[in-house]
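cron nightly-structures :: item 1 of 1
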Amino acid sequence: MHRLPRRTHVVLDAGLLPRRAYTVRFLGQALVGAVRRHGHRQIAAELGAPEGTVRGWLGRARSTAEQLRLIGVQAVVALDPDALPAADRGDPLAHAIEALVAAAVTAHRRFGHGPREIWSRIALLTCGRLLAPSPTG
């Protein structure tokens, strides 16, 4: 008789990310700090997080910024094209965060339910993969 492997499935709150010890809001604060041109050491000190952890988050977010931007843009276009951010910020991460925020605000405005906290909405838009939007990214 062939036995199937035992598996456990956990449903996470939208404010949590898989395999992360910090909330998506906490991670979002680090990303906003990076968009404001704060270095990883300053962000880590402000948040009380390890420098290496913050450096890793920022590196992963920057390496997938274009994918993050596309997720945000596609959601905004589907929900309300007039809400699409028009200006390119020059910094791919800043452009990505702006698109994701626009998508989260537009989705909440359109549907009126779901998480109230914006980073939780962004986590839903990215399917909980804010730091790794695709298996290859």
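cron nightly-structures :: done
Residues 92-111 form the longest helix (20 residues).
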